Structure prediction request, 158 residues.
Amino acid sequence: MVEEVLTLVKVPISEIEEWMRTKHVLPKVLTDFRIEENNLILYFSNEHTTQRESNPQLLQTSIRKRRAHRKRNRMKTRGWEVIARMTNSKGQKCAIYKPFVKALQDRTLNSEEQRKLVEKILRSNRNRPSETSIQYFLENTIEYLQNQESKTGSGNSA
Prediction:
C-alpha cells in the first residue's frame, strides 16, 4: 500500500483581497467571490451591499459545482459511405449510410426483420446499439428510401 502525504494550505479571502488591492486600484467593497475552473474570481463594487454580511450561507452556494463528465453515445460509422444528408421528419439532421440503404431496399422484409438487419449492421462495426439507436437508423433510412421512391415515381409519370 502506497502512502500519500497531502499538504493543505488555507488562505483567507481577506488576505487575497488585500494583496490584490496593493497591486491594483480597485473599488471599495468586495461584493462576491467564486471559483470557476482554475480561477478565483473577485467581484468589487463601489456600493456597499448588505447581502454578503446578512447571509454568509449565500457565499457557500455561489461556488460552482462541476457537472459529471458523461460519455456521449456515438455510433461508430467509420468506413460507411454517406449516401445523403437530410433533415428527417422530426427535424433532426442525419446522414444516410450505404449499408442500411442496401439492406433495407428489399421490399419483402417485415419490420422486425428490418430492425434485426439494422442491429446486425451496427454490431458489425463494434457498436452496442440501444433500442433507440436502432430505431433512429431504421426510421431515417426508411424515410430516405420513401423520399427517393416518391421522387422517382413522380419523375416517371411526367
Observations:
- The chain has six helices and four strands.
- The first strand starts at residue 29 and ends at 36.
- Residues 82-157 form one domain.
